[in-house]
Every structure is written in C-alpha cells, then in structure tokens.
Amino acid sequence: MTTDFPSLAPYGWNPRWEALFADAADRRDDDVVPARVVRHDGVAVMVAEPDGVRQLPVFASIEPQPVVGDWVVCTHEAVVATLDRTSLLRRRDPGRPVEQPLVANVDVVLVVNGLDRPVRAGRIRRAIATAWDAGAVPVVVLTKADRFSDADLDAARATADEAAAGIDVVVTSAVSGRGIDELRELAVGKTIVLLGESGAGKSRLTNALVGLDVATVGDVRESDTKGRHTTTTRQIHLLPTGGVLVDTPGVRALGLWADPEAVAATFDDLEELATTCRFNDCRHGGEPGCAIAAAVAAGEISPDRVEAWLALRREAEALDRRSDPRANRAYGRHVGRIAKDAQRHKGRDQGE
Asked: Rounded to an integer, what distance in angstroms lies between the CA atom of residue 46 and that of residue 37?
C-alpha cells in the first residue's frame, strides 16, 4: 500500500501523517485513503483526498469527531477514523460549560482586530492564551490600516504591543497590501487560523492572502462597527506561497477553555517576576514582599495587565478543577469547610 500522496502536500501532508495513516490502514480490511478536512457541514465534511475534494458523511462512532484541519481515514463511503492531532484550537462552548473544538493541527493563530474599533487588550490576551493552549504560535494582526493616520496607527500599535507583550504584531491593509507578504511568509509550510470578531476584516484578509475572492465580504455598521457573519463555517484555503489558511466565523465571546500553563505563557513576564516574591504562595493581592506589587508601584508594569493576568489565571484554575475529578472533590471539600465555618460563626454571633 502506498503512503506517498504528492497531491496532498499542499495541504500539509508529511512523514508524520504518512506513518499514522499507514498504521491505521494496516489495522483495516478495506481500502482506505487519507484526507484532510477542509470544511465542516454538520453531519458531513468536505475532505481533500488524493484524487480531489468531495463531501463524505462521518461515522458517529469516531472519537474524536473530526473538525476542520483534521487528517482522517476515508473509505469510498465515509470518514472512518481521525488521526492523532498535533494541536487543537478550542474554546468554551457559548451555551454550556463544555469544550468546543474549533480547528485541529494548527501552527499559527492570527488574532485579528479591526482598527475601526477599539483595540481591546483583554480580548487580545484571551485569544493569545487560547492559541498557546492549542500548542500554536499567536500573532496579533491589526487590519484596515489604510483608513487611519500614522498617529492613530502608532497609538493602536502601542496598545496591542502592551497587551501582547513579546508577541509579534503585524499592521495590515487588504487595500494597500501592507503586511500581506509578511503574513504569507509566516504561513509557508504551516496551517494558520484567523481568529477575531465579526467585522474585524478576516474575509478581506483571507482574500488578500489567497489572492482570490474566496470569502464573502460584508458591510460593517458605522454606528457601532459591528459586522455581519459573512463567514458561516470554518474552511481551509490553499495559499499561493505555500501553507493553508483557515477562515473562521466571527467570535463574539471567546470563552476560555485553557489550562493554567497557557495563561502563564501569555503573561510570561509577570510569571517570571512572580518567582522573586518573598513567599512562594504569594497571591499578589497585597502580601508583604510581593514583587508584582512593587513593580506596579514603581510604574514598571501596568496594574491593568496584572489584573488581567490574575483574572485569567483564576478562570483557568477553575476550569482545571472542573476537569480534574480529584481536584474538584478536594475543592468541594474546601468550600464545604468554609461554609460550615461560616455557619458556626453565624450561630455564635446569633447566640451572643
């Protein structure tokens, strides 16, 4: 059985996927081929196979269920297996407290923010943490630069630089072509994903990077800079300079579904400074000898950045407890003891 499929090379086929596919195929009695999921259509997916792109249903028994970016094993009739992923971009489901997989086997996440709206540091940091959690490299992209003066761009860039803290920030314009070649160079041989809210300019950026009008561009309301969801599904596009781009629908709320290590990577400067606090268990809430508090007082770091760090860390730690049954039980016992103590104190107070 051959595992050499040159027609899949533009989609990222490499020796790793060859080995995984060969192992999966050896364990089956039927004829199978590899493919990459390029679009998700509910119970079916569009896949790029050696002979072209077609739609196939997905067996409900597959675990995990494939998402865009996954490499899968296909028979003539259906997708029958998902190959082990290298990474997974995910978020908290907007409707319930569970993980929502977005894109698999991601290398770079482009955190897209339109310059026709405020550059929100909190949203950028949350997206960066989501990218680190996926095992991907985040890059902040500011779009629509052609509409603004150099002074406006400098101010927006300063806000993004402070929020990203060491992460590359690229200023772009799909109209003038500014920054497009830089992003294409980042994408060579990689899978890159656009992540941002509706109206941020992801569709125009997609068209500029691909060099064709592959994504529908919608209008943005001038009153509140809100855009319509012109992209309704995640989809892979091949880039002319190599690599693949995944355009995604606008994300209004990026619910964090990341472990504490991803938050630590987002704020690595603060994490490193925290190691110099007097106490190892310093919570950076006013304890004596807190290096973070000293740096804030000296004007060396922004209090808003520290507040964002602590808030995201608490959120990630809470998710970590919920996903770990033993930690969850221990936390429950801890909360129970606090409640009982409060009740005892309340009883004594009432007795007095």
From this structure: 6
User: Side chain identity at 247, as an amino acid letter?
Assistant: D
- Would you identify the CATH topology of the domain 6-82? OB fold (Dihydrolipoamide Acetyltransferase, E2P) (2.40.50)
Torsions phi, psi for 116 (to 5 deg): -85, 10
Coil, helix or strand for 262? helix
CATH label, 260-351, candidates 3.40.1190.10, 1.10.40.50, 3.40.50.880, 3.40.50.720: 1.10.40.50
How do residues 225-247 score in pLDDT, each as one tens digit?
444 444 458 899 999 999 999 98
Per-residue pLDDT of 247-260, as tens digits, reads 887 565 555 566 67
Q: How many angstroms separate the Cα of 341 from the Cα of each of 241, 338, 347, 348, 349?
A: 64, 5, 10, 11, 12
Query: What is the reported pTM?
Result: 0.75
What type of residue is 17? Answer: W
State the pLDDT at residue 257.
Answer: 61
Phi and psi at 318, nearest 5°, equal: -65, -40
Chain centroid to CA 59: 27
Q: Do 6-82 and 260-351 fold alike per CATH?
A: no
The pLDDT value recorded for residue 12 is 96
Q: Are 125 and 308 in contact (CB under 8 A)?
A: yes
How many CA atoms are closer than 13 Å to the CA of 256, on its beta-carbon side? 27
Domain ranges across the chain:
6-82, 88-247, 260-351
Low-confidence ranges of the chain (pLDDT < 70): 1-3, 94-97, 216-232, 250-259, 318-352
Strand partners, 46: 39, 55
| Range 88-247 classified under CATH 3.40.50.720 | no
